[in-house]
Amino acid sequence: MYWSTLARNVSLRTLHIAVICTVLLLSIVAIFSSPPPIHAAGETVNVWLTTGDLSTHLAPQANLTFANGSGGGNVITVNENQTYQQMDGFGASFTDSSAWLVYNKMSSSQRSTLMNNLFSTSSGIGLNFLRQPIGASDLTPPAPTVGEYSYDDMPAGQTDPFLAHFSISHDTAYIIPVLKQALQINPSIKIMGTPWSPPGWMKSSGSMEGGTLNSSAYGPYASYLTKYVQAYQAQGIPIYAITPQNEPLYVPNGYPGMSFPASDETNFIKNNLGPTFAQNGITTRILGYDHNWDQPGYPTTILSDSSASSYTAGTAWHCYGGTVDAQTTVHNSFPNKDAWETECSGGTWENSNGFPNTMSLLIGVVRNWGKSVVRWGMVLDPNGQPNLGTGAACSTCRGVVSVDQNSGNVTYNGDYYGLGQASKFVAPGAYHIDSSAGSNGVQDVAFKNPDGSKVLVAYNSASSSQSFNVQWGGENFSYTLPAGAAATFKWSGTQSGGGSGAPVGKTIWLKATNGNYVSARIDQSNNPLEAMVTQVQAWEEYDVIDAGNGLIALKSHANGDYASTRIDQSNNPLDASVTQVQLWEEFKWLPQSDGTIALQAQANNDYVSARTDQTNTPLEAMVTQIQGWEKFTWGQV
């Protein structure tokens, strides 16, 4: 009986163990064989609206909710996995006139309210970029109250090459106190300085107006700008960036200005300003040009000079001539240099409250690599006063806000609300991320904040309301925007699907480490892709196609065929020769830390390379690690 009982117990134990093992095995199989969990939809989207007539301004709207799937119609696709430039901020210029009005024509309580509305990230719109004139501009109160001035004015016929009389005492009366108040409210503000003119004794005209910089004054002028940075730093106001000259291709009548041709500014940066900053341990960025979009050759001259370029962070742009895509043109030629839009005034000539132009400026600048969006005068009175009142000094400009000189009352103009649609929600350090351009008059731009939240700004420039869908990975929401209105959408979460990180839907060029563009043309026929062309035409343009599963394909713009590594199913030079996307036409888009990208062929896991035997040969997918010849810069056509 004992043995039979023992045998029965052993059999039961064995059975129990077998059952447990079977359950565990089936569980493991289920875990590894089941499809990946579907990303749960339902992220909340916060919405703020400003209408074209400003009757509704930065007003919270009912929350939206993402739903799984894709929307139809007018679709704006947001891809947070493709990042572009990191933003510096949004703002305007606290000119002499602006600071004078705020400090002298407002009570302390009125001033406090205005400054909080301008710079607070909670109670205001969080402006965080100021472009400050170095000395007088046309938006300076007229003489005898102020008039034209520099930080080293001398009697006629006298000079001060060692800058013994340098002083920023003028600014300590009301400009510096206002800037300190702004920084106290928002410590993340970046301040750049721009001179409308060097001191008159440095110039051929002997005046703040007109003329050119004397050859003997190049060194003193570099020291002058150095002393400016140091003096402001001593006041607790760091200067983030500087330009050598405001609008160097325009010599105004009646207010400070100077002709400073591209070759002269290039020489000044490389031989004087850059070295002087370096010798004094100044890390303030030097931005070139500071003028309109219509003369991209000017910044190209600076950035093409290796010595000047080594001291130059990038280009400052104005909006008064040409088109905003000049920023992209220069960026594509110098992808390691940045772009800042630093002046675009509002005024009576716009025939609007400033909102339409501010919205179009904001979206266009950022979509063309701009790190800043800057209007001109921060504060003027309703009549565009005060200004120098002479010659071409702007008497029709409009401030971002208007302050009545008699009562101190404030009118918040369309420029204020336009900037606020982004500045209130886009945090310092945010990146511009990819979003497809809307249609039917809808314009848009998107950002990703350091905390991972996404911000989409959409503006309806059409004369009727427009509906659209926002596609974010595998989710979407729909919205209808009134004519002339702008909305800001903000949400958190992580994008699911649809995110290769590549500029899907865009037409791009690729440039190899030898400085040549990847081309499919050679002798105008369909040949292996080579990096051997020095300019971009149709055979150097490729549409980036979403191949699914985080992969992309490259479609030659010239013949409509896809770049492929297969040909006869072996590893051969890349050819634009295939009419459909299969395994050999699929690539991983791999951003590199230096801003370049690498392409990994999905079929063999090797990297696309232009090197082979270290000479310029057809591109092949045959290298197992990424080095120089496997890295490509790229730009949008």
TrEMBL record:
It comes from the Bacteria. It comes from Dictyobacter halimunensis. Signal peptide: none annotated. It holds the Pfam family Glyco_hydro_30. This is Glucosylceramidase. CDD domains: beta-trefoil_FSCN_ZgPorA-like (cd23342). Residues 88-395 form the Glycosyl hydrolase family 30 TIM-barrel domain. Keywords: Glycosidase, Hydrolase, Signal. Gene3D superfamilies: 2.80.10.50, Glycosidases (3.20.20.80), Golgi alpha-mannosidase II (2.60.40.1180). Belongs to the glycosyl hydrolase 30 family. Residues 429-489 form the Glycosyl hydrolase family 30 beta sandwich domain. InterPro entries: Actin-crosslinking, GH, GH30_C, Glyco_hydro_30, Glyco_hydro_30_TIM-barrel, Glyco_hydro_b.
